Amino acid sequence: MIHVKRPYKGLGRRPGTVSRETPAEGIGPDFDGGGEWDYGPAPGGTDETMTEELTCDVLIVGGGHAGAEAAAAAARMGARTILATHRFDTVGTMSCNPAIGGLGKGQLVREIDALDGLMGRAADLGGIQFRVLNRRKGPAVRGPRAQADRKLYRDAIQRLLGEAEGIRIVEGEVDDLIADGNRIAGCSMRDGRRIKCASVVLTTGTFLRGLIHIGEKKIPAGRIGEAPATGLSATLERFGPTGHDLVVLDERRGRMSLGKNPDNDLVISDDGAVSRVHAVLEVVGPTWCITDLGSTNGTTVNGERILSARTLADRDEIVLGRTRMIIHHLGGGDDATTDRLRPAPQRTPREQEVLIELCRPILSGQAFTPPASVKAIAAALFVGEGAVKQHLDHLYDKFLIEPQAGESRRVLLANLAIQTAAVTMRDLQTPERR
């Protein structure tokens, strides 16, 4: 059952509760309502709260219309709520058209009102004109609309949030999200503070890498006079929201080609600046490397165009054409790469020689080097090809490479030999047996 408190045919109670000339009492830093205001340290300050770690049930990022409603809804459910926003005095600001309701939004405002939301009540407190649109037409196209004073509406939202129990407002820019496995466990702010929570609600509006266009001039801003949220934008790209892909690097396979051609392991078909076979990711020793394969527009790592194989580290940014990729979880103690590797199995001296010759082409320095063929291994060791195939079959079994891998078994075997240090660079640099 839903209890609708205000059946007035407009948007809520009739206007007149608050004078338009005098802001409502109790609004601002000295207000002592039912909630708790926390403004955080002043910009550039050295307050101890710079390293403070806060805890809540629900974290709301952004203090616009959606952020205010989300914070109030979470508090009504009994959750300890933190509303993080750049500046407290902009909470509830009406960025553009100061109208509440209308033909489309009017229904939305009524639904929010039925759920005990803030918008209808704030419109009552800050409204300067109330009317029903299209009154002369049929009921299907009529819509209630209120014109609000932007300052009164903002003050009303701040007052209503202050009266709600369990809401804490923190000033500062949320710069990064903290992940715990496959869930978000909190956020870190630009000033160093951390907030731990069970749920995060992003209501950032126009602030994510916001850009204002005035004629030919472009100004990075979330609103006029307010900085955009650039750190959080990069974080969302890293976590792979809708429209982005999360691709797992398979160390057992050891190679991943990138390009527009459908035959590539990672197909980038929607970027015209990417070549048909653009670059290749390969496992070399304990880590991954990327090599540009003579692409038209090149490949950059952390803004630097690569001319040869480049070793990758955690959080490196790769750009192919207009496509950006972020590398995660490479080279750390908790790296899944090192967790999945088994020690190299025992090998006979002849099997070791076959393994070394299989991997020897890596010294060629070419962009993409396939392992040695059976014929080349046989020629290097002065043995028959049948003997080489037999040793390779034993090595496939020992390194647990499935027969279904087919022709790529030699690639898998060579990569595993390098990863597990069964073959080292010192082994490869010894003279060939000729």
Q: Please give the number of β-strands.
A: 23
Strand order of the largest sheet: 1-8-4-3-12
Any idea what the shape is? elongated
N- and C-termini, Cα separation:
88 Å
The biggest sheet, with number of strands, parallel, antiparallel or mixed sense and barrel status, is: 5 strands, parallel
SS element count, helices: 11
How large, in whole angstroms, is the Cα Rg?
31 Å
Uncertain runs = 1-49, 331-341
Helix content: 10-25%
Approximately what portion of the residues adopt beta-strand conformation? 15-25%
Q: If you average the pLDDT, what whole number results?
A: 77
Secondary-structure-based class equals alpha/beta
Overview of this protein structure:
With 434 residues, the protein is of the alpha/beta class. It contains 11 helices and 23 strands. The strands form 6 sheets. The protein has a 5-stranded parallel sheet, covered by helices on one side. Helix 3 packs across helix 4, helix 7 (349-359) packs across helix 9 (385-398) and helix 8 crosses helix 9 (385-398). The longest helix has 14 residues, at 150-163.
Could you provide a short overview of the structure?
With 434 residues, this protein is α/β, with parallel strands linked by helices. The chain has helices spanning 65-76, 105-114, 119-126, 150-163, 230-239, 336-340, 349-359, 374-381, 385-398, 409-419, 425-428, and strands spanning 36-37, 53-55, 58-61, 81-85, 99-101, 127-133, 143-148, 167-171, 174-180, 183-189, 194-196, 199-202, 211-214, 217-220, 255-259, 266-267, 279-284, 287-292, 299-301, 304-305, 310-311, 317-320, 323-326.
